[in-house]
Design goal:
Blueprint lengths: L2 H6 L2 H29 L5 H30 L2
Helix pairs in contact: 2-3
């Protein structure tokens, strides 16, 4: 986020973004655990491929959410 955009955010908007990032973390945790449990099952080749795609998407989402949360912390 650029300085111009940062200064345009009100305290309430920043708080709402923090709250949403926290809720996203909680939702991602459910997906992470589900993906883990899927990985414990015996899957055919096609299902393993789908599981791999899910796992990669989850990892990307976690990284993006962490960057967002880190940025919000630094912007305080």
């Amino acid at each position: 986020m650029s300085k111009t955009v940062q200064s345009a955010l009100t305290f309430e908007q920043a708080q709402e973004i923090r709250r949403l990032a926290h809720e996203l973390s909680n939702a991602l945790e459910v997906v992470i655990q589900t993906s883990y449990l899927l990985g414990t099952l015996e899957l055919d080749a096609s299902a393993r491929q789908w599981h791999g795609m899910l796992d990669n998407g989850v990892k990307q989402a976690i990284e993006i959410n962490q960057k967002l949360r880190d940025h919000l912390r630094v912007s305080d």
